[in-house]
Amino acid sequence: MEFRDFSLLIRDTKVHGFVDGLERGELLASKCSSCGAIQYPPRSDCSHCFGTEFEWVAVRGVGTLVSFTSVFVTPEHFTPDFSGSAPFSTYGYQPAPVGIVEMEGGLRVMGWIPGVKAESLRVGMRLAPRPEVLPDGRVTVVLAKAEG
Amino acid sequence: MGHVAVVGIGQSRFGIRSDASLRELAFEAVKACLEDVGVQLAEVESMVVSVASDELSFALQPSAQVTDYIGFHPKPSFRVEAACASGSMAVRAGWMNVASGLADLVLVVGAEKMTEVPTPIATEVLGRAGDSLWEYPFGMTFPGYYALIAQAHMAKYGTTEAQLAAVAVKNHYYGALNPYAHMRKEITLEKALSSFVVASPLKLYDCCLISDGAAAILLASEKVAKRLRKNPIWLRGLGLGTGSLSLAHREDLTTLGASVEAARQAYDMAGVGPKEIDVAVVHDCFTIAEIVAYEDLGFCPKGEGGPLVEDRQTYIGGRIPVNVDGGLKSKGHPIGTTGVSMAVEITKQLRGEAETGRQVPNAEIGLSHNVGGNGQHAAVHVFGRDKE
Fold this sequence. Notes:
The complex is a heterodimer of chains A (148) and B (388).
Chain A: H1 8-11, H2 17-24, E1 28-32, E2 38-39, E3 54-58, E4 63-69, E5 98-102, E6 108-112, E7 126-133, E8 139-145
Antiparallel strand pairs in A: 1-2, 1-3, 4-5, 4-7, 5-6, 7-8
Chain B: E1 4-11, H1 22-37, E2 46-50, H2 54-57, H3 62-70, E3 77-80, H4 86-99, E4 105-112, H5 119-127, H6 142-157, H7 161-175, H8 189-193, E5 197-199, E6 202-203, E7 213-221, H9 222-228, E8 233-242, H10 257-270, E9 279-281, H11 287-296, H12 305-310, H13 327-330, H14 338-351, E10 365-372, E11 377-384
Parallel strand pairs in B: 2-3, 2-4, 9-10
Antiparallel strand pairs in B: 1-7, 1-8, 4-7, 5-6, 8-11, 10-11
Helix pairs in contact in B: 1-3, 4-14, 7-11
């Protein structure tokens, strides 16, 4: 599926199931089958016990914004007139802010925060990480205002 | 283990050096270094080269350009890499070469040519020093990563944009006095605060420069050092720490764990603490990085880095003078060169040979702090006039 090109690089890893999850609307972390450590971004090999078996667990719920920025001076692949092939969606969220939220249990997730200006954000705000289909058909992770 | 001394120092002028190639810049530094101590290249037994980026130099083994151009072959030489801390890795590898007894006289060279590619490409290459798989796809850049650190520090400790700007004002003040600096120009707080936003809350004057330049030091064993110099400067403590690739993997964004670990090792080895440091150069790739470094190195309690610079305590005459060579901010930051250039500066300060207006009086113990990426590596080195 086209949706798999959130990142061609991630598709070529042992955790390529992550992009399948995004396609289904699920944000996935890895859980080590040996020691139970849950990690995001997901990893096939456990850095706690060196186990190499893992299962997927969904990251759900609302997190707390730990930090954020809006990048105005962009790298080559994110410049507005970039026309080459990029290994991820270049559909323009920039200069939308990017933030990190901390979930219950301590997992931290990075994502775009589209549709707002950085000035309106505050550390400590409640935001929910979730997959989002971009207008170019690819998938990314966004941090959305918590409902209610 | 034997003692290791810095017996020679040299560096090129930093800047947009479209007049010179990577190898020619390295040659400038090596020539100055050997002349500083009066040693012939034939006497040097081994060499370590730091060039951080193949992408910026358009070459695999750019270090071969350096060893060939200065005419070092067929003697041993190798390259080390840790992004912006590559230079300190070269100093560390040079120290290991001498302390192990493998060689008595070792040349350590850092060189980088960054301005041959357009800024968007340099921004991309540098951004990929972070987690290129999981964080770069969000358009993250180097300023972006440090902006996340800054925002978290401001939220937790009340650090202000004016305090960030105060770092830039100080470093430009001293950079203007350094003939080797890239941007020899003082700036005002107002100018820094009104410059355009690169990655909020960091503005243009919160960011270091993209520079070309080279630096070299000559390291010697105790027996050779005493023959070459009456008062060599001793490399007394070395520390090296590592940290997570992803910023999202850190429990606390307001500190670099790699720096804290490197400082602990270096202070232990040298047998000194932060209060005994007379002069320091720290990795101010962004203004927030200098404030975090004050805290991680123990120059002030956690969260008090902003007030420390605002109260001018890191100027000469203050509690601990920091980056009185202009720092990465004003001297410039040719990434593979910086760690070696830091060793040059601290040696110069401890010899009492810094230029007028930027010499710390009677400095006896100095420290360098060099970060690779956004904290994946950090090296802290302690230098002294006395070997113990």
